[in-house]
Design brief:
single chain, 98 residues, 3 helices
């Protein structure tokens, strides 16, 4: 069973982590003139933000936990778009997510 959301939360929270790391590095006095760690974390954040709009949650092997409540043995996050090319990731998004 696949559930489509506007943003895949598991991927979104990972993007948030890289975004926060980039912000901290950007604001740290010790990192002045050392842009590479900021750039890497910001780029990972952008990549994951783009991927979270293309993601889906997959619920596997449902069973009844108790009356009216379904339990799933395995829940995973999947993105249909692979790779690290930010332009391709952006162009793969549907118009509503651009």
């Amino acid at each position: 069973m696949k559930v489509l959301r506007k943003a895949e939360p598991n991927i979104y929270y990972k993007a948030e982590g890289f975004h926060i790391a980039a912000q901290v590095l950007n604001q740290a006095n010790e990192m002045q003139y050392r842009g590479s760690p900021f750039i890497v974390n910001a780029t990972f954040a952008i990549e994951l933000y783009l991927k979270c709009f293309d993601g889906q949650t997959v619920f596997n092997r449902p069973s009844e936990y108790c009356e009216g409540v379904t339990k799933y043995e395995n829940v995973t996050s999947e993105g249909s778009n692979r790779g690290h090319d930010l332009g391709k990731l952006f162009n793969h998004l549907n118009d509503a997510n651009r």
